[in-house]
Amino acid sequence: MKFSAPDIAKLKEVIANPRKTVIVSHRNPDGDALGSSLGLKLFLEKKGHEVSYISPNAYTNNLKWIPDTDTIMVYESSLGKKICEAKIKAAEVIFCLDFNAISRLEGLGEAIKESKAFKVMIDHHQQPESFADLTFSNVKYCATCEMVYDIIDDMGEASLVDDKIAECLYVGLVSDSGFFQFNNTTPNTHFVAAALIAKGAKPDYVSEKINNIFRETRLRFFGYCLNDKLKLVNNHPVAYMMISQPEIKKFNLQSGDSEGLVNYPFKIEGIKMTAYFSEEPDRIKISFRSRGDVDVNTFARTYFEGGGHRNAAGGKSSLSLDETEKKFLEALKSIDFSK
Ligand code: 5GP
Ligand code: MN
I need a surface site. Which of 151, 200, 253, 274 has the fewest CB within 10 A? Predict the structure, then answer.
């Protein structure tokens, strides 16, 4: 058993009979949010539950190939709010996957807070809030997908994991571990990967779908960012890029097209922290990445209304790009890079 026996027993009891079930994941869903939610959805449907997966906003085109994405209900869409709120109102059980703070749902959070459904959180981020009736929270897990597999296994139900479910869960595993390169990769990550491959996940197919599906303009945009936009900070092992709305328009970028860019500056030897700032219509969205002891979770929480993991976090700013840059450079002084 990987999780506590009483928690697993409780979950088994909750899903013993068919229930009206809703799954929600964080805004701007990534491979782990989508993979864990869709994998769990397919599993629960096999057990006879009626399951709706609601995402706060649309998923990006480059994740469309994941099984069952056409069933995702999007809250921030013209018809979405009413339909999603009705589903949430009727729900007996709500699973909260790959987030641990209601604020990460933004507008959808109110409906979830008000719901009387039994709530189950499955998440691997730092500092969980206690809004769920049953909480599976463990920062040692590299991905929520890894947790979902172990929870299914702990319930004695691994035989229900078929090739589609395995593929969904494998997507989150490789997304959040950077294809087993980041320091969150553990022996357990590889055990779960092995189990998922044995059940039909195809590593080469998933890798191609994640890594090699760029449109030409996206690859040229990466080139532009690395050539023209990359800045190295004086006296700190930090590199960052800031992209404005006109630049995003010029390259005809779709959301999700900057995915992965934030990791490139680590190719420069000695870089310990990177940041990617993208100007969206209503905010500047920020991604932070770091190596070793440099804690970008705390940094994002303290200065940019965000959070995440020690070495991968996100946040936002309502200032202009220039002001955000100034704030960022000033805030960097709080980090001790000597460790
Ligand atoms: P990304 O940079 O890929 O958007 O996010 C990196 C990590 O930080 C992910 O685990 C993501 O869930 C988390 N994250 C991104 N944005 C936010 C945010 O605004 N708040 C919090 N708490 N976590 C975030
Ligand atoms: Mn995750």
Answer: 200
Using the atom order of ligand 1, give the atom closest to the CA of residue 315.
19
Q: Residue 51 Cα, ligand 1 centroid: separation in angstroms?
A: 26
- Domain end point (choices 211, 241, 265): 211
Mean pLDDT of the 288-305 span: 98
Same domain, 247 and 145: no
Task: State which residues form the domain around 40.
Answer: 5-211
| pTM score of the predicted model | 0.96
- Predicted pLDDT at 255: 86
Q: Please name the residue whose Cα sits nearest to atom 13 of ligand 1.
A: 308
Residues 116/37, Cβ–Cβ less than 8 Å: no
Query: Would 15 be classed as within a structural domain?
Result: yes
How close are the terminal C-alpha atoms of the chain, in Å? 36
- Answer whether residue 339 is part of any domain: no
Q: Which of 211, 246, 266 lies at the terminal end of a domain, its last residue?
A: 211
Q: Given its phi and psi angles, is residue 270 left (phi above 0), alpha (psi -120 to 50 degrees) or beta?
A: left
User: Are residues 275 and 289 part of one domain?
Assistant: yes
The CB of 101 under 6 Å from ligand 1? The reply is yes
Ion ligand 2 — residues with CB under 5 Å? 32, 98, 144, 176
Residue 171 covered by a domain: yes
- Mark whether 127 and 71 lie in a shared domain: yes
67-101, pLDDT tens digit by residue?
Answer: 999 999 999 999 899 999 999 999 999 999 999 99
Cβ pair 302, 313 in contact under 8 A: no
φ, ψ (nearest 5 deg) of residue 86: -65, -40
Average pLDDT over residues 286-315: 97
Q: What percent of the chain has pLDDT over 90?
A: 99
